[in-house]
Amino acid sequence: MAQWRAGGRMTRVLVPAAVGDVLDRITILALKAERLRAPKARAAAGAEQAELEAALTEAGVDLSQLHDLANALAATNTTLWDLEEAMRTAHNTQDDAQIASLSRAIVAGNAERSRLKAEINAATGSALQELKDYASGTGDQPL
Fold it and tell me: Mean pLDDT, to the nearest integer, of 35-55?
């Protein structure tokens, strides 16, 4: 796991997390392990991914039962990655129409990502949940 160096020593912070958030992180780390340019960064992402997968297994989460949801979440995160890369290009070229279109697609992708994480949390009985409440009136209502 990537760790922060404080005063010459490695620090690890362990926190409770919703299963959907951990699985989301795992799918993002898989993307990084595949797409980052620096070999050390790819290796670090792969190591962190393996550590998080082991933590879920140790917590009793059966990843094989989440195969379809995990694949959908990975596909959504891949799409978001590509959209964000396109957004950086559009910003560099100052293409306002493209920026607006990509922005709408990113909002939709993030809504799908949130929906999938909520479904994962429900499927696993996760004690923690991600709550959303947008000014537009969409998203989960606060408890």
Answer: 96
